[in-house]
Amino acid sequence: MPKRILEGVVVSDKGDKTVVVKVERTFLHPVLKKTVRRSKKYHAHDEANVCKTGEVVRIIECAPKSKTKTWEVLPSGGAAQA
């Protein structure tokens, strides 16, 4: 099964080699037929400590690195995203 990739905003970079990423998703409410926004925070591994608060990053699933970290920050390759 392929690994999931999510995109979100870094809300905290205070931990060593760890960032907290807020991922927002939208869906249609089944009864009200209204667009609803939900967000969730993920702890992600940032090996080089390069991510700063406010940046938009992509994270990918990985094997558990600690009790709460099961995601890694994808390295941003400018030409690779084209």
Automatic annotation (TrEMBL):
GO terms for molecular function: rRNA binding; structural constituent of ribosome. GO terms for cellular component: cytosolic small ribosomal subunit. Keywords: Ribonucleoprotein, Ribosomal protein, RNA-binding, rRNA-binding. GO terms for biological process: translation. InterPro entries: NA-bd_OB-fold, Ribosomal_uS17, Ribosomal_uS17_bact/chlr. The keyword RNA-binding applies. Belongs to the universal ribosomal protein uS17 family. One of the primary rRNA binding proteins, it binds specifically to the 5'-end of 16S ribosomal RNA. Part of the 30S ribosomal subunit. This is Small ribosomal subunit protein uS17. It comes from Phenylobacterium kunshanense. The lineage of its organism: Bacteria, Pseudomonadati, Pseudomonadota, Alphaproteobacteria, Caulobacterales.
